From TrEMBL, chain A:
PROSITE patterns: 2FE2S_FER_2, 4FE4S_FER_1, 4FE4S_FER_2, 4FE4S_HC3, COMPLEX1_75K_1
Subcellular location: Membrane
Occurrences of domain 2Fe-2S ferredoxin-type (ranges): 1-78
Taxonomy, superkingdom: Bacteria
Entry protein name: Iron hydrogenase small subunit
Keyword entries, A-Z: 2Fe-2S, 4Fe-4S, Coiled coil, Iron, Iron-sulfur, Membrane, Metal-binding, NAD, Repeat, Translocase
Domain 4Fe-4S His(Cys)3-ligated-type: 78-117
Main subcellular location of this protein, as a coarse class: membrane
GO cellular component, one term: membrane
Residues of the 4Fe-4S ferredoxin-type domain: 136-166, 179-208
InterPro entries in UniProt: 2Fe-2S_ferredoxin-like_sf, 2Fe-2S_ferredoxin-type, 4Fe4S_Fe-S-bd, 4Fe4S_Fe_S_CS, Cytosolic_Fe-S_CAF, Fe_hydrogenase, Fe_hydrogenase_lsu_C, Fe_hydrogenase_ssu
CC cofactor: [2Fe-2S] cluster; [4Fe-4S] cluster
TrEMBL record, chain B:
Name of this protein: NAD(P)H-dependent oxidoreductase subunit E
Names of the cofactor(s): [2Fe-2S] cluster
Cofactor note: Binds 1 [2Fe-2S] cluster.
Gene3D superfamilies reported in the protein's UniProt record: Glutaredoxin, NADH-quinone oxidoreductase subunit E
Entry superkingdom: Bacteria
Pfam families cross-referenced by the UniProt entry: 2Fe-2S_thioredx
Family named by the database record: Belongs to the complex I 24 kDa subunit family.
Length: 678, 165
C-alpha cells in the first residue's frame, strides 16, 4: 500500500494501481476515452492526463502507477486546457455527422465533449476519407474512427483472431484488416466484440431494422419473430434496468405491440437442440465405444462466430462439430414448415425475424446451408440493441408494458433452454437430459447445476461417471464422461490445439464464441458496468431455477412436435430441417469462393475540396473512379503543400543568410574598429 | 494450418524457388522473439517486394495474424507491397534542388515514364520516387538512379540519361 495525495486529499492505494484506478476508488472521476477497465489501457488518447507534482509533462492516469508520496491534481487549469485541445484535435479528423449517426446520444466521444465542456472546434484540416466497408454482419466506417484501438485489443488479445490491426502510419493510420481487404473477405468470425467496445460509430452491426419494418408493413407476409435466451436478461438495460434484470414478459409484450404476427421463443428450439444434439452425442459415443468408430470429442454448434472461426482456422477438424443447426435456424426451419402447414400458409409467405445477442447470426442466415428448398430459414436478424431501437422508435413505453407470454406452439421452454445463453449452459442442459435418458435418474448435482462448469473461467472441465445405466445404454456402464466448456475464441483455440495434436481427453465440448457466452455477445447492449457478465449470468440462472420444468425432454410441446411432425430425434425429417454441414474456408479464405461483402447503395456524403457536400451513390464502380480522382487530387495537394513548405524554407534560409551577412558586416566593422584602435 | 501459397495461380516456377528460400529464412528466425522485421527484410530482398500472397505465406508460417504482418509492412516505408522496377529513380526535392528546378524534372519524368510518383513503369524498368535532400546541394538539381547521382540535370538531359538504362 502507498500513500498519495489526489486533489489535496490524502488517500491510500494498492501499489499496483494506476492513478485512474486509485482516483476512481476514491470517487474522483477522470475523463477518459480509449481506456476500458480491465481490458484496454494503452494511453493512446491522452484525454485522462493529470498533473503529477515533479513531473515535467502531464501524465496519462490510465498508465501511470501510483507511488509513495505522489501528489496528483486531476483538475487544474493546465489539465483542463490540455484535455480540451486533445479533444478538439480528435474532432479535427472525425466525421461529425452526429445527427444521422447510429451512435447519436449513445456515443462516448459526444459524452466526453459534454463532460469537458468543449463548445468549439478550432482545428479544421484534411480529413480521413470516408469509406464504408459493409459485410453481412459488421459495418466499418473509418471516417468516424478515433484510433483508440480498443477493437484491436479485443480482436487480438481477447478473441485471438487478429483480424483488425493498425495499418499504415501517421495520418494515414487506419484500423483495418490486412491490405485494406474488406472485412467480409477475411477470416473475421463476425463475433462483433469490436462493435461492443467501439466508443463511436466506426464499428457497428449491419442494419436490419429497415428490412424488418418493411416486412411488418407488407400485408402479404406473415411475420414471425423469435428471441434468444440472452436477450431477455439484457434488453432491460436499454430501458434503464440494472444489468441482469429479466424482462421476458415485457419483451414478449413489446413484440406483440410492434405488430409481429407470431411471437415465438428461440428457447423452444434450444430444448429441441438438446434432444437432437444429445441424441447425436449418444450415437457418437456408442459408435466410438463399440468399435464402429466415430469422431470425438463432439463440439457444440450453436455459436455461428465459433463456427466461422473453426471453418477458417481448423478446416480439417469440422467433423468434430455437431451437425445440429443453431437453435434459431432450427426454429426458423420449423416456422416455415411445421407451423406454416398448421396455419395453411406457404413457406414463401412467412417472414422470420430473429432477435439475437449476436452479430454473427446475421452472417449465419446468409449461409447457403441455412436454406431449405431455396428458402432461407431466417430472413432477418436484429441484435438486442436494434430491437431496443425499434421499440423506442415505435414509441412503446417498454417499462410500463404488462407481461405477456410467447405464442404457442413454438413459445414454450424449460429452464434448460434459458441457460443456453451463458457459458456452460448448453453443456449443463445437455447433461440434464442425456444423464437422465441414460440412467433413468436425475443429474446428481445440487439444483441441477453442474458446479465445475459454472462461472466465467476461460476453460472449465467436468467428469461424470455413469453407473448402472438403463439396458439400452449398457455400453456406457462405468464410463467417465469427460466434458469441457469454453467461451471466447482464445479458449476455443486452446481446446482445438489439443484436438489437432490428438491429445484431447474429452468426449463433449461446448464452445461459445464470445467471452461469457451469449449474455455478452456482440449484439448486446453496451455497458460500462464491469460486472455486467456475472450479473447477466446470475439473471439467467435465476430464470432457469424459477421454472417448474427444467429439463428439455420434459417440455410437452417438444414431445408433441416429435409425435406430430418430426417422429423422433435424429429422424430423417429432423435431419432435413434441423441439421446442417459446414464449409472449409481456410485461414485466408483460400478453400472457398464464398465471401460476405455487402454492396449496399449507401449514400456516401463527402466533403469536396471546396467544402461543398456531394452526395454519391456508393457502388463499386463509382468507388474506383472516385478513388482514382481522389488519388490525383491528393497528389496535386501533396505537391502544392510541398511547394508551400519549400517556399517558406527558402524564405527562412534567405533570412538566415541576411542575418549572417549582417553579423559578418558587423564583425568586419568591429575588426576595422579594432584595427583602427590599434 | 499454414497454407503453402506456392500453389496459387500467380506463382511461377521461379517463385516457388523464392518461396522455398524465404521458408528457409523463416525457419531460421521462427523462434526468435521480434524477428518479423528481419524476416520481412530478407523476404523483400529475395522476392523484390511483399505482395499479399507472400504476406499470407509469412503470416501462416509464423502463425501470426495477417493484419499484424501487413501492419508492419505498411508502417515502414522501406517495405513495398507493389513490384518495384529494375531501377529506382529518385528526384531530389531538397531545398536547393527544388528551387533550381526539381519540380520541373518531376513533371517531365512523369510525362516520359508515363507514371505518377511512387509508381513503376509498365515495362518494369523504373520505379519513380522523390527523395529528400541527398546531400548534393552543390550539384543541384540532382537525380539519383539506383546509387548513381546525376548532377545539374535539366529537362532536356533526362531522356539521354534514361537511355543509358
Amino acid at each position: 500500500m502507498v500513500k498519495l495525495i489526489i486533489n489535496g486529499k490524502q488517500i491510500v492505494a494498492d501499489e499496483d494501481m494506476t492513478i485512474m484506478e486509485a482516483a476512481k476508488e476514491n470517487h474522483i472521476s477522470i475523463p477518459n476515452l480509449c481506456y476500458l477497465e480491465g481490458i484496454h489501457k494503452i494511453g493512446s488518447c491522452r484525454i485522462c492526463v493529470v498533473e503529477v507534482k515533479g513531473a515535467k509533462t502531464l501524465q496519462a492516469s490510465c498508465m501511470t502507477k501510483v507511488s509513495e508520496g505522489m501528489e496528483v491534481n486531476t483538475n487544474t487549469e493546465r489539465v483542463r486546457k490540455a484535455r480540451k485541445v486533445l479533444y478538439e484535435l480528435l474532432l479535427s479528423d472525425h466525421n461529425k455527422e452526429c445527427l444521422s449517426c447510429k451512435r447519436n446520444l449513445n456515443c462516448e466521444l459526444q459524452e466526453l465533449g459534454k463532460t469537458l465542456g468543449v463548445e468549439e472546434t478550432r482545428f479544421e484540416g484534411t480529413r480521413s476519407e470516408r469509406t464504408i466497408d459493409a459485410s453481412v454482419s459488421i459495418v466499418r466506417d473509418m471516417s468516424k474512427c478515433v484510433l483508440c484501438r480498443r477493437c484491436v485489443t479485443v480482436c487480438n488479445e481477447i478473441q485471438g483472431t487478429g483480424v483488425l490491426n493498425a495499418q499504415n502510419r501517421g495520418f494515414d493510420t487506419v484500423i483495418s484488416p490486412a491490405m485494406d481487404l474488406p472485412i467480409g473477405t477475411v477470416d473475421c468470425a463476425f463475433c462483433g466484440q469490436c462493435t461492443v467496445v467501439c466508443p463511436v460509430g466506426a464499428l457497428k452491426e449491419t442494419d436490419a431494422i429497415d428490412t424488418v419494418w418493411n416486412a411488418l408493413h407488407d400485408k402479404s407476409k406473415r411475420v414471425a419473430v423469435q428471441v434468444a435466451p440472452a436477450v431477455r436478461v439484457a434488453i432491460g438495460e436499454e430501458f434503464g434496468c440494472e444489468p441482469g434484470t429479466i424482462v421476458t414478459g415485457k419483451l414478449a409484450a413489446s413484440l406483440h405491440a410492434l405488430g409481429f404476427d407470431d411471437v415465438f421463443d428461440t428457447n423452444f428450439a434450444a430444448d429441441l437442440t438438446i434432444m437432437e444434439e444429445g441424441t447425436e452425442l449418444l450415437i457418437r459415443l456408442k459408435n466410438a465405444l463399440t468399435g464402429v468408430g466415430d469422431v470425438l470429442p463432439m463440439i457444440t454448434s450453436c455459436s455461428p462466430g465459433w463456427i466461422k472461426y473453426i471453418e477458417h482456422q481448423y478446416p480439417q477438424k469440422l467433423e468434430h462439430l455437431s451437425s445440429c443447426k443453431s437453435p434459431h435456424t432450427m426454429l426458423g426451419a420449423l416456422i416455415k414448415s411445421y407451423y406454416a402447414e398448421k396455419i395453411d400458409r406457404s413457406s414463401q409467405d412467412m417472414f422470420v425475424v430473429s432477435v439475437m445477442p449476436c452479430t454473427a447470426k446475421k452472417f449465419e442466415i446468409a449461409r447457403e446451408e441455412m436454406k431449405n428448398e431455396g428458402v432461407p430459414n431466417v430472413d432477418a436478424v436484429l441484435t438486442t440493441r436494434e430491437l431496443a431501437a425499434m421499440i423506442k422508435e415505435a414509441g412503446i413505453d417498454f417499462m410500463s408494458l404488462s407481461e405477456e407470454d410467447f405464442d404457442h406452439p413454438l413459445g414454450m421452454s424449460t429452464g434448460a433452454a434459458d441457460i443456453f445463453g451463458l457459458t456452460g449452459g448448453v453443456m449443463e442442459a445437455a447433461l440434464r437430459t442425456v444423464y437422465e435418458l441414460v440412467t433413468g435418474r436425475e443429474l446428481p448435482f445440487d439444483k441441477l447445476h453442474v458446479t465445475p462448469i459454472v462461472g466465467l473461467d476461460q476453460v472449465k472441465t467436468a467428469q461424470i461417471k455413469i453407473e448402472n445405466p438403463l439396458k439400452a445404454y449398457d455400453y456406457l456402464d462405468g464410463i467417465t464422461l469427460k466434458v469441457a466448456v469454453t467461451s471466447g475464441l482464445n479458449g476455443a483455440k486452446l481446446l482445438m490445439e489439443q484436438i489437432a495434436k490428438g491429445e484431447s481427453p474429452y468426449h463433449f465440448i461446448e464452445v461459445m464464441g464470445c467471452p461469457g457466452g451469449c449474455i455478452t455477445g456482440g449484439g448486446q447492449p453496451r455497458s460500462d458496468d464491469v460486472d455486467v457478465r456475472s450479473k447477466r449470468l446470475q439473471g439467467l440462472y435465476m430464470e432457469d431455477e424459477g421454472k417448474v420444468l427444467r429439463k428439455s425432454h420434459e417440455n410437452p410441446y417438444i414431445t408433441a412436435i416429435y409425435e406430430e411432425y418430426l417422429e423422433y430425434p435424429s429422424s430423417h425429417k429432423s435431419h432435413e430441417l434441423l441439421h446442417t454441414h459446414y464449409v472449409m474456408r481456410g485461414e485466408f479464405n483460400e478453400l472457398t469462393k464464398e465471401r460476405f461483402v455487402l454492396q449496399p447503395n449507401i449514400p456516401v456524403k463527402r466533403v469536396n475540396k471546396k467544402g461543398v457536400e456531394e452526395e454519391k451513390t456508393h457502388t463499386a464502380q463509382s468507388d474506383v473512379r472516385r478513388k482514382r480522382e481522389e488519388m490525383v487530387d491528393i497528389r496535386i495537394l501533396a505537391l502544392e503543400a510541398e511547394n508551400a513548405r519549400l517556399k517558406s524554407e527558402l524564405e527562412d534560409a534567405l533570412e538566415t543568410v541576411d542575418i549572417y551577412k549582417q553579423v559578418v558586416a558587423e564583425n568586419i566593422s568591429k575588426r576595422d574598429l579594432k584595427i583602427h584602435i590599434i | 494450418m499454414s497454407v503453402k501459397s506456392n500453389n496459387c495461380s500467380c506463382c511461377t516456377q521461379d517463385d516457388t524457388q523464392k518461396y522455398d528460400e524465404i521458408a528457409n529464412i523463416i525457419d531460421l528466425y521462427k523462434d526468435k522473439e521480434g524477428s518479423l522485421i528481419q524476416i520481412l527484410h530478407h523476404a523483400q530482398e529475395i522476392y523484390g517486394h511483399l505482395p499479399l500472397d507472400l504476406q499470407r505465406f509469412i503470416a501462416g508460417s509464423l502463425n501470426k495474424p495477417l493484419s499484424e504482418v501487413s501492419g508492419v509492412i505498411t508502417f515502414y516505408s522501406f517495405f513495398s507491397t507493389k513490384p518495384r522496377g529494375k531501377h529506382t529513380i529518385r528526384v531530389c526535392m531538397g531545398t536547393a534542388c527544388y528551387v533550381r528546378g526539381g519540380k520541373k524534372l518531376v513533371e517531365r519524368l512523369q510525362d516520359i515514364l508515363e507514371v505518377q510518383l511512387g509508381e513503376t513503369t509498365k515495362d518494369g524498368k523504373f520505379t519513380f520516387e522523390i527523395a529528400r535532400c541527398i546531400g548534393a546541394c552543390g550539384l543541384a538539381p540532382a537525380i539519383m538512379i539506383d546509387d548513381v547521382v546525376y548532377k545539374q540535370v535539366n529537362v532536356n538531359k533526362l531522356e539521354s540519361i534514361l537511355s543509358k538504362y
